[in-house]
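If you are new to this repository, start here. Below is one unmodified record pulled from the training split, so you can see the exact layout before writing a loader.
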Amino acid sequence: MPVALNYKLIFDSARQIKDDDSTEGNQSSVVGPTADPFVFEGANPKPVKPTMKWLMNYLQKHNIGTGATRVSTVSQITAGRTALLHERRGTFSMTNTGIVSAVLTEGTIISSTNATKRLFDLMDQVGKFELPPDQLLTTATQTVTHGMPIMVENAGKLHDRLGDPEKLVKKYPQKPKSSGTTSAGKEVKFNQVWGGHHFTDSEVADLLAGKDISFSIKTKRGKDMDVHGTLAQQTYRGHKFWGFKAADDVFTKTNKKSIKNKSK
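And here is the target side for that same chain:
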């Protein structure tokens, strides 16, 4: 015997079963008209392609920066070796660097549009002398401090999202090298191929001796081009290296020929 009826005060399972048996097969006892059920079918619309216009409208909608600032920012994140976005036929797609940045900053304040707008507003107030710079720096520091541990934790997700890091790095074939001692007694190493021309052993010896060598190469248009030059130490993007250096008159003559042909 139950101590208290509780829910049975309003629901009696035995009576419910009895009522169901008595009404089975007797549709006239059903209260109300018979319904014709149907199911709505549909599909979500395709996501909007991330074009320049879409991105600018998004930034403007959230009131992030001025028009000039938006254009400058988009220009910075779409150019160079560390570009976050790649534009092709007017549509943006994320580079590997962009995906890494998105994974690392997921869940951080710094990735929020509201936080970005807040920092822009604070910078405007500092520029108008309405806010002391220390308060802006404090807010920026708090944002970074909050995001650092989250980014460290998100770093563990990179392998699952991007796969093997070695597959993401574009590898270029190693160029064959020649090495030896110059006439000044300096040990050097330089590329054995220049402009598609492979230096012979005698040409390598002449270069190390400081002599001027000459040879012919094919231009990108398939025309023959006579080249001569010497081995010299050069600088590329702040890094010094040894390699074949064509004489200046080689390119001057080529330019003169091309200009002369165009004038005809």
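Two things worth knowing about this chain: Confidence is low (pLDDT under 50) at residues 254-264. Residues 12 and 208 are 105 Å apart (CA to CA).
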